[in-house]
């Protein structure tokens, strides 16, 4: 792996594969903006790869530093309860890995303003 750092976009997942399309677009757009970082997409359920699977693959490929961005609108149960358990599992499995999580994207003021601006254009 040429990139020692990775950004994981972490989404919920769904049974319908079409649900992942905007997240795949986000991953591609982000990767294009960060050519020196591996940008990857992981899912909580229903879709692959799972977060632990992806983290293990990135570490096996030589990644030393992972930042995880939950692509959720809010800090609901999955982000507050499920994500910390998964993060601890990853830290325990890969003790040399620098692994940090950031708040859900919907908690960011700029994201909320972008959604507001989209809604304002509708009227």
TrEMBL record:
Keywords: Lyase, Metal-binding
InterPro entries per record: CbiX-like (IPR002762), Sirohydro_Cobaltochel/CbiX (IPR050963)
Pfam families per record: CbiX
Top-level taxon of the source organism: Bacteria
Keyword Metal-binding in annotation: yes
Protein name: CbiX/SirB N-terminal domain-containing protein
Organism: Undibacterium umbellatum
């Amino acid at each position: 792996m040429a990139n020692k750092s990775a950004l994981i976009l972490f989404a919920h997942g769904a049974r319908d594969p079409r649900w992942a399309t905007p997240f795949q677009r986000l991953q591609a757009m982000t990767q294009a903006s960060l050519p020196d970082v591996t940008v990857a997409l992981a899912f909580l359920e229903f879709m692959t790869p799972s977060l632990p699977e992806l983290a293990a693959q990135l570490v096996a490929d030589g990644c030393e530093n992972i930042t995880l961005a939950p692509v959720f609108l809010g800090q609901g149960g999955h982000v507050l309860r499920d994500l910390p358990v998964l993060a601890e599992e990853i830290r325990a499995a890969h003790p040399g890995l620098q692994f940090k999580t950031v708040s859900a994207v919907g908690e960011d003021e700029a994201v909320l303003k972008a959604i507001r601006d989209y809604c304002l254009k509708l009227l």
